[in-house]
Amino acid sequence: MELESKGPGVATLRRYAAVLVSGLLLAAPVAQAQNYEGYYGNTEWRDIGEDVKTVKYCPGNGSIAVGTRRNSDADQVLVTRVSDTGVTDNAGLNTWQQAYYVGGGKHSAGYGIIELAGGAGFAVTGSLRTDEGSYAFVMRLDCKGNPQWTTLLDNRDQTSRATGYDLIQSGSVMPSRAAAGGDIVMVGEEIQNGRTVGRIARVDLTGNVVWDHQYDGHEWPALQFRAVTENLANTGAWTDLVIAGTATSANGVRNALMFRATGAGAPVCSTTLGDEKEHRDFNGLTPLLGRNFLGETVLVGAATGFSEGAPSQPYLVRYSRASCSPKVQAVWNDREKASFTAYDVVEAATLDGLNGALAVVGTIGSSQGFVLAADPATLREYGALVQRRYGDNFRESLYAIDRKADRFIMAGATGADWAGEGDPQDLYLVQVDAALYTQCADQWYPQAVNVDLPPKDLWPQYQRVDKFFAVQTPPVDASKWGYACELDPPEGCPGVIDNGTVMLGVHPTAYLNIECPAIPMSSGLYGTTLVGLRFLPTNGEAPRRARPAKAGASPMPTRPRRSAATPRAATARSTWW
Question: What average pLDDT score do residues 447-460 get?
Fold first, then answer.
């Protein structure tokens, strides 16, 4: 791999919500949300999703996810662009799936993605591993997935291992003095000589580095930066960068880290939360824009016991405006004492007429994705809204969430081999409405309690990294997908009412039976895609005579809405990486 040095210091970021619960009521006009669970990735690869964002500017809307696909001798960045119904690889909808060899090397991984304002495409961050070490990178793609440029950020030592985990475009989250369509800000870490230092870099839209800083925690041997956003600064001059992560003490105890910096990378404040009883980590964060909490920030992660295999519990903290001072802390518990971790969070303020819930995504153990709806005031349960679990046979995980006007999109991985082809692992996308619903979701009833750990100040020193490199990034086609849980009735099926057990189709002229090709054939004598009065557990259609069950036939499963286009292979649980 040949690196072109760019020199130092170059300057210039269905259920529509008629669900009458006390929270998450849609304020927008009622419209059917098309919920789904889908899998994406080629058979010979293990595909995983690490981040997902809503597409707003590139034609076609939809969502875009980034992750990594791996086989025995190669790792590639995987970017998947889907429509609002989960369709990919449809040029007419401007959807596609591509893999990328960053720098032409055989080992690269993707961890964060954003859409750039004004239809300027997308930006991706991750790592490129070489024989000597690894580099964090920022890559820009156009709306069709074609690489525009890739910038590698240099390390102070060639044997260091650096990774980019998250990024934003300045001026895109909070109002600031940054120009519209501002610079890209990336956060990550670098492991060097037994220490781990935080990393923040600001890159302009041509790929030149404005500044690149390492942050050393001194008495804290490891600072890990995992997620970044913008929020209001107390000066009002610029927005602050707000970073979530982990600070590890000299005795090896991990503490949850909140770090603020100016738009130029200078530290504003930083605090840790922890004790000598548990490890604590922050994995994701969101700025609050609702009128009651404007300028505050919520960080999410996990509290984990010291013993090997100790269970984890989601840990949520809301911080004061323009500071690193915690206001409310909460830990969530599973009634069955399962281990689960929160990875990402998004605010849903405009989806209801109250304060707006926080949608928190994560994984139970390593094999079942979940979403919690947390009250931003208390960080505990939000009204009567039921929490949800996703996936089937405990082979799915969720790591990222973003919101649309009337729904949420989540990304992770599935090892269920939905097509029955021996596929070990695929990218997994779940799109839900304001009630967190898909036709295959399970209800779940965890509980939360408030805690009060005192913050400790941390003052990292930072120093500039001057050199960066421009490299080429060859793309590779990567296209295969299907529904793990079938699509909800589309906009073309108006009048279909579905409570999860019974589906009722009412035509505008008041008679039953509405043609809805998005659902399976009914189990009547003459199977159709009409919806009159359908009983979902048996898929029986009341207006037609039910087909008698065959002798010895097994009953329908309790989750009848899984896609059955192809049988699932009886495979062992996926090996997770």
Answer: 96
